[in-house]
Amino acid sequence: MSTQLILEGMMLKCTCTEAGTAKANEEPLCTQPDEIGLVPIEQDPLIGETPQGTLQSWLTPNSLFYVRNHYSFPTPEETNSWSLVIDGHVSTQLELTLDDFRQFPKQTLPITMECAGNNRSDLQPRVPGNPFQNGAISTAIWGGVPLNEILAKVGIKSEAVEVLFEGLDSGSPEPGVDTEPYLRSLSLDMAGNPNVLLAYEMNGEPLSLEHGYPLRLIVPGWYGMASVKWLRRMTLITEKFHGFFQGERYIIEEKDGTSVPVTDIQVKSLISWPQPGMALSRDSHNISGLAWSGSGHINRVQVSHDGGETWNDAQLVGPRYEYAWQQWNYDWTPDSDGHHIIVARAEDEKGNVQPMDTRWNRLGYVINGVKPVCVNVS
Fold it and tell me: Is 309 in contact with 342 (CB distance < 8 Å)?
């Protein structure tokens, strides 16, 4: 049986077929799914999303952490001779090697990273861009040096307003545009956040090339485009940066012709189990999932099994950190046979509630409306 569900302006396809029963999640922190390997989106530049089976774990294995690159990998020559230059409007210009960074006290922080285009394939009408399902999101424990410690070491001059971050990777961002490195900036206020990291470790291991080796920026609470990989230069600048990946992309266009930059992750949830199309019995089932927000802890998750007509509070379980997703579960015993539409919505500590639908936008960013899961009960 196949149905189409229209949910407050957003059409989602649900194909309901018989599937197996639930798999027990015996280890809540990190599980290894049956389908080993990223779900491929593109080969060069490498883009892939985390498989559905891993989206039950609090930590994502490094090999299954989603990958979103804009250009090809840096060459071995570039990474082998790597150092980070800090220049611009600073009192003391610095050049640091990876060994230099390891001399600083290491800070570790669990952080959930989500691509701004996660769930882009849900948008109707379709938009260009990588057709992510719901797997362009992952969580790791990042290790490195707080950015503000390095900025304090170089001394910021009074005329500086932003830090510009340059990656080793480069290319033409679109046809007709000159070759340029990947560039993003942060305001001094954001750069001064003690949780913004210059990371060289991921889940206790050195960064791999696909995740930014030797060093990358990690901006907790913001979509992944801010966390520049293969960081080669930080420059203190006196004007706001409006480069391609900050002025032409990663923006939400308004009807009046203005645009709003994509920054902090909006409150969102996903249902890990059951998966769409599963055939369930009338027995008790444990609906489980994850919820997250760039604005702080998740305070509440609600579940509906009638398409959003009635809601029930789920139980928040597992580790609880400001910048990492929250596991949740809800016990449900179906009271009737037939087609059931399960929906979850999250609320963060600032009172932000996940919307029922997503605001359509031309570039396909910030898709945080609820995502129904349809099951057949008999």
Answer: no
Query: How far is the C-alpha of 50 from the C-alpha of 159, rounded, in Å?
Result: 42
Cβ partners under 8 Å of residue 126, min gap 6: none
**E runs forming strands in 115-242:** 137-146, 162-171, 180-187, 197-202, 205-206, 216-218, 231-237
Q: What angle do CA 352, 315, 295 make, to 5 degrees?
A: 25
At 112-138, the pLDDT tens digits run 999 999 999 999 999 999 999 999 999
* pLDDT-based confidence at residue 53 (cuts at 50, 70, 90): confident
Q: Which of the four pLDDT bands, split at 50, 70 and 90, describes residue 255?
A: confident
Going from the C-alpha of 297 to that of each of 95, 136, 318, 353, the distances in angstroms are 37, 20, 13, 12
Q: What is the rounded distance in angstroms from the CA atom of residue 48 to the CA atom of residue 38? A: 5
In the predicted model, is pLDDT for residue 31 greater than 70? no
For residue 76, whether the previous peptide bond is cis, meaning omega lies within 30 degrees of 0, is no
pLDDT value at 19 more than 60: no
- For residue 99, the SS3 value is helix
Task: List the one residue out of 167, 123, 52, 129 whose CA is nearest residue 361.
Answer: 123
Q: How far apart, in whole angstroms, are the C-alpha atoms of residue 297 and residue 10?
A: 27
The amino acid that residue 314 corresponds to is A
**Could you give all domains of the chain from N- to C-terminal order, each with its CATH number?**
2-30+266-377 (2.60.40.650), 62-261 (3.90.420.10)
Coil, helix or strand for 313? strand
What DSSP element (H or E) covers 79?
helix 76-80
**Of 118, 123, 141, residue with least CA distance to 68:** 118
| Residue 188 near residue 241, CB atoms below 8 Å | no
Residue matched to tokens 């961002």:
173
Where do we find the tokens 């001779």?
A: 81
For 256-289, the pLDDT digits (tens) are 889 999 999 999 999 999 999 999 999 999 999 9
How far apart CA 362 and CA 123 sit, in angstroms, is 10
Q: Which two tokens stand for residue 35?
A: 């389908």
172's tokens? 């033409």
Distance of alpha carbon 79 from alpha carbon 232, whole angstroms: 9
The Cα 18–Cα 16 span in angstroms is 7
Q: Which two tokens stand for residue 6?
A: 């229209």
What is the pTM (predicted TM-score) of this model? 0.91
Mean pLDDT of the chain: 92
Alpha-carbon distance 61 to 215, whole Å? 19
